[in-house]
Amino acid sequence: MDTRATALRFSETVRTVVGLSRRGRLVTPVFRSPPALEGMDRTIRWRCEKPPVVAIAREGRPLAAVQSDVIEAVVVANSLDRRRADRFRRAAWNALEGTNTAGPGRPRRRSALQTADGSAEAKPDPQEAVAADLAAS
């Protein structure tokens, strides 16, 4: 299995983690690649009254390292306490595992449940529950 951090995989990672952070009503950093500072794996630029800009290097790095940097950027941008940070990390990794199993460029589909009257109902997404909990605390 190829574990390089391609541009497509970087984009998928950012979309997934940003989606989770938005559902949790967290500050969502702006992501870009590569960092302007040569030799840096990641940088963060704080801006007044705006979300921070996080630049992450992906060339020559394993996908897991890049994914970790994206997740940690959200944790840092929101100054999450240890409990909330741990819950966000767990939810983000679970969400990323779901997108990785769907294949490149294909979002994971929700399966449908059959209701008593025979109609289809969307199965609840476990990430939604974590995001709601993050937003409430």
Element layout with pairings:
Layout (H helix, E strand, L loop, with lengths): L6 H17 L6 E3 L9 E6 L2 E7 L6 H15 L4 H21 L9 E3 L5 E3 L3 H11 L1
Parallel strand pairs: 1-3
Antiparallel strand pairs: 2-3, 4-5
What would your notes on this structure say?
It is a single chain. This protein is of the alpha+beta class and 137 residues long. It has one domain: Zincin-like (2-Layer Sandwich). The chain contains 4 helices and 5 strands. Strands 1-3-2 form a 3-stranded mixed β-sheet, covered by helices on one side. It has a two-stranded antiparallel sheet with strand order 4-5. A hairpin with a 5-residue loop joins β4 (112-114) and β5. α1 (7-23) crosses α3 (82-102), α1 crosses α4 and α3 (82-102) runs antiparallel to α4. The chain is globular and about 50 Å long. The relative contact order is 0.18. The model is unreliable at 100-114 (pLDDT under 50).
Q: What is shown here, in short?
A:
By secondary structure, the protein is α+β, with helices and mostly antiparallel strands.
